[in-house]
Amino acid sequence: MKLYWYAGCSTCKKARKHLGGRDVTVVELKTDPPTAAELADLHGRSGLPLKKFFNVAGQSYRGGGFKDRIGSMTDQDKYEALVADSMLIKRPILDLGDRVLVGFKEADWP
User: Fold this and answer.
1) H helices of the chain, where?
2) Residue 9 to residues 16, 17, 37, 70, 80: CA-CA distances in angstroms?
């Protein structure tokens, strides 16, 4: 398992606590964000629309005007925006290998 998180995020802390002592590789999104190719891979395995990878409640999303422009962006534009500002990335992300979970919902997490 690989957990992409932001240490200052209370939801991420809940997710990490939920995972307990399991063998989890932790990746800090702010200092070690995934590449566009890694995001594309995570997105593909998640089965979710790419918009779900955006932290729509965050300052970067609101300040960047993404609400008005995300609909006209290509997937590549979206990946590049997420890589350019990792605070745009919805968190936490849990990579289970065969599937990817975005956001923490305790009932859905292993």
Assistant:
1) 10-19, 36-46, 59-63, 66-69, 75-84
2) 11, 13, 25, 24, 23
Q: In this prediction, what percent of the chain has a pLDDT beyond 70?
A: 100
Q: Cα 72 to the chain's mean position, in Å? A: 21
Q: What is the model's pTM? A: 0.94
Domain 2-108 adopts which CATH fold? Glutaredoxin (3.40.30)
- What's the CA gap between 20 and 64, in Å, rounded? 35
Asked whether the predicted pLDDT for residue 21 surpasses 90, the reply is no
Break the chain into its structural domains and give their ranges: 2-108
d(CA 53, CA 99): 14
Return d(Cα 40, Cα 78) in angstroms, integer: 10
Q: pLDDT for 58-83, tens place per residue? A: 999 999 999 999 999 999 999 999 99
End-to-end CA distance of the chain: 10
Cis? peptide before 92, omega within 30° of 0: yes
